[in-house]
Amino acid sequence: MFKINPTANRISPLEVKRFSDLGFTERKHLQEWLENYPQALTQGDGDELLIIQKEFDGFDDTRERLDLLAIDKEGNLVIIENKLDDSGRDVVWQALKYASYCANLKKQQVVEIFQRYLNQKAQSEGAEPANAERVLLEFLQADDLQSVQLNTLKSQRLILVAAHYRKEVTNTVLWLSQFGVNCQCFKVTPYQAGTELFLNVEQIIPTPEASDFMIGMMAKEDEEKSASNEQRRSHGLRLAFWEQALEAFIQSSCRLFDNISPGRDHWLSAGSGLSGMSFNLIFGKSEIRVEFYMSRPQAETNQLVFDQLFAQKEQIEAAFGAELEWQPLPNRKACRIQYSRAVDGYNKDNWADMIKWLVEHMTRLEAALSAPLGVIRQNLKNQ
C-alpha cells in the first residue's frame, strides 16, 4: 500500500506493522472494530452483515466461546473467528465446531440470542434496548418472522480473519469449498505513516472472481428449491393485493406506479428521478407504509441526500400533513423516510381501506418531496 503525494506527484510505501507491535489485541481492538463495522468483511454492493452476538458461549453442554456471530441478508448465520497476527493451526476446526452448534438454532432462539446482545449493548450505553425481532425483520426486509428463511439447513457461513494464514489452514478451507462449505479468509494488515495508522482488509479465499461464481451457483440452487407453504400463501396474497392497489393508483392523480407490474414481494418501488432512490409501497401482515428509500451503493451519497432532506424536515412534514419517521439506519448503506399504519394486512376485508390509505399518503409524500428532490437532483448533477 502506498501513500500519494499529489504535490510532488510521487508515491511512498506505507510501513507494514504487526498488531502486537502497535499494542493492538484481538478482543479489545480487532474484534471491536469488526463488531462496529462488519461491512469491512463484505464484498458486493448488496452484501451486508448484522452482528447479533459477541463472545457467545450459550451452546448446550459446552462453554466454548465464538468471537462474533452475524447474519447476512439471506438469513444465513455467519461465524466470525479472529486470530490477529497468525491464524494458528486450529482456526478452521474451531469455526466448524461453532457452525455445527449454530446449525441447530431455531428462529426464536436466534431472536433471543440477538435480544440478549441488544440488551447488553443498551445497558452499557445507558439506553433502552431495541426490539430484536423488529431489527432483524428490518435488516432482512421481511414482513414477519414466520415467512423468513432463517438459519436453514447447510446455510451457515464461516469467516476467518488474520494477518497471516498457515498453509494447513488455507488448504483446508479450499478443500471444504468443494463440499459446499462457505468459508472466507480475510487478510488484515495494519500500516503506519508517521502518526497515522491504516488497516487493509482483503478477501484472499475465495478470490472475488471465484466468489462471484460460487454465489451464482448457490443462487441457482436456491432458485430450484421449492418455496414453503407459508411463502406460497404470502406470494399469492401479495400478488392479489398489488393488482387491486395498482388499479386504484391508475384512477388517482399519482402517476408514480403507472408502469409498475404487480409482484410477489411485500413492496413495490417506483423511480424518483434519482438513481438508486425510490418511492416504495409496503404491504405487510401487520403494517402498511409509504416511504422514500435511499439505497445507492455509495452510503455517503445516501446520507448526504438524507441530511439535506432532514434539514427541511419542518417544511416537508407541513406539506405532507403529518410527522414522518426519519431513519438514517446507522451502519447500513441505506436511509429511509416513511409513514406507516398498523393493519390486519392479510384480512381481505380491510384491503379497500388500506389501498385508499396508500394512494392518499403516497400522493402526499411525492408532493412533499418533489421540490426538495428537484434541487438535490440538480446539485448531484453539478458535482
UniProtKB/TrEMBL annotation:
Matching Pfam families: DUF4268
Occurrences of domain DUF4268 (ranges): 237-370
GO molecular function, one term: nucleic acid binding
InterPro entries: DUF4268, tRNA_endonuc-like_dom_sf
Record protein name field: DUF4268 domain-containing protein
Taxonomic source organism: Halopseudomonas formosensis
